[in-house]
Design a protein that fits this description.
The protein has helices at residues 43-50, 120-142, 160-171, 186-192, 201-204, 224-232, 256-261, 275-288, 291-295, 306-314, and strands at 2-11, 14-23, 32-40, 61-62, 66-74, 84-88, 103-106, 111-113, 152-154, 176-180, 196-199, 215-220, 234-242, 264-267, 298-302, 321-325. It is of the alpha/beta class and 335 residues long. It has two domains: 2-113 and 298-334, Quinone Oxidoreductase, Chain A, domain 1 (Alpha-Beta Complex), CATH 3.90.180; 129-267, 3-Layer(aba) Sandwich (Rossmann fold). Strands 3, 5, 6, 7, 8, 15 and 16 form a seven-stranded mixed sheet that branches. A six-stranded parallel sheet has the order 11-10-9-12-13-14, sandwiched between helices. The protein starts with a strand and ends in a 10-residue tail after the last strand. The model has no long low-confidence stretch (mean pLDDT 94).
């Protein structure tokens, strides 16, 4: 039986994504077959489909770094037919067919059972961005950053990671400062739970090695000079989580924040995180995230719409979360 998929191909240096019909025999190796309901469009998906980063390692390949759906068949211990499951990263859209399809076959080690409180659509409204945001929150907690320690800065606040991080942190009682280049969308960030909005340009230019202490912790998805300035303005024994590189992969900083203020820089890897960490993250998301806030920032599109949205996300023109209904037609509002 055939199914639809968005397949990435490469001609020279140009990557194209086209809707194709595939057979189950085209699926890759794995001990679990999943009927996919939803995927998402993340910043990494934009990087992959644009070729801006060498994320897709072999062509042709079904793109999409995450998906949620129901198990059709399984020989993996502990995963049964009918289970609702989510997959984030691993080799998806790199060396293995990803989530922009109506079916996937993967290793059961890549799957997490979706908590009962969440649907498959909820799971992809959260997606890899939300799961990454939760990993950042866990790292802040593990570093001893409690709400009474002071403000938490969130950079790239209008993006997927930033939006969910604000919603999570505010629901946990933290006072959140949101950094954005889209000040006209301040009301949106306040609806998510941000108490204060600052212009990203105050952080994006080269600054002093250390500055006035402003926040107890931070969730940074931007990198480069922004991350350097975040570190320079973090309070004594603060924790900064780094999970992205929207501005760049360099870090023009010094050791001063670390040796003068005992600041911790916690790297966040969502791709190869151990299964126990993933399960904890999804369990905490189901408990701590206000889904009503999330749904106000979520748009649903079809597979044909993905390339256009993937391009826009790299330009910083996508607000909140974009869910891909792999069984739906194109969203005519995008044309």
């Amino acid at each position: 039986m055939t199914f639809k998929a968005l397949q990435a191909t490469k001609n020279g240096n140009t990557i194209s994504a086209n809707l194709v019909e595939m057979e189950e025999t085209d699926l890759m190796a794995g001990d679990v077959t999943v009927k996919i309901d939803y995927s998402t469009v993340n910043y990494k998906d934009g990087m992959a489909l644009s070729g801006r980063a060498p994320i897709i390692q072999s062509f042709p390949l079904v793109a999409g770094i995450d998906f949620a759906g129901s198990v059709e068949s399984s020989s993996h211990p502990g995963i049964e037919v009918g289970d609702k499951v989510v997959a984030n990263s691993w080799g998806l859209s790199q060396s293995h067919h990803g989530g922009y399809a109506q079916k996937a076959r993967v290793s059961g080690e890549w799957l997490v059972k979706i908590p009962d409180a969440l649907s498959t659509k909820d799971a992809m409204a959260i997606g890899t961005a939300g799961y990454t945001a939760m990993l950042c929150v866990l790292a802040l907690e593990q570093g001893g950053i409690t709400p009474d320690r002071g403000d938490i800065l969130v950079t790239g606040a209008n993006g997927g990671v930033g939006s969910v991080a604000i919603a999570l942190l505010s629901s946990l009682g933290y006072r959140v400062v949101a950094s954005t280049g889209r000040l006209d969308e301040a009301d949106y960030l306040r609806e998510l739970g941000a108490a204060e909005i600052i212009d990203r340009h105050t952080l994006s230019e080269p600054g002093a090695p250390v500055g006035a202490e402003r926040w107890a912790g931070a969730v940074d998805s931007v990198g480069s000079a922004t991350l350097a300035n975040v570190l320079a303005q973090t309070r004594y024994r603060g924790v900064v989580t780094a999970c992205g590189l929207a501005q760049g992969l360099d870090l023009p900083s010094t050791v001063l924040p670390f040796i003068l203020r005992n600041v911790t820089l916690a790297g966040i890897d969502s791709v190869n995180a151990p299964q126990a960490v993933r399960i904890e993250a999804w369990s905490r998301i189901a408990r701590d995230l206000d889904l009503k806030k999330l749904f106000r920032t979520t748009k649903v599109i079809g597979l044909p719409d993905v390339p256009a949205i993937a391009a826009l996300i790299l330009e910083g023109k996508v607000q909140g979360r974009t869910v891909v209904d792999v069984n739906a037609a194109a969203d005519n509002r995008l044309s």
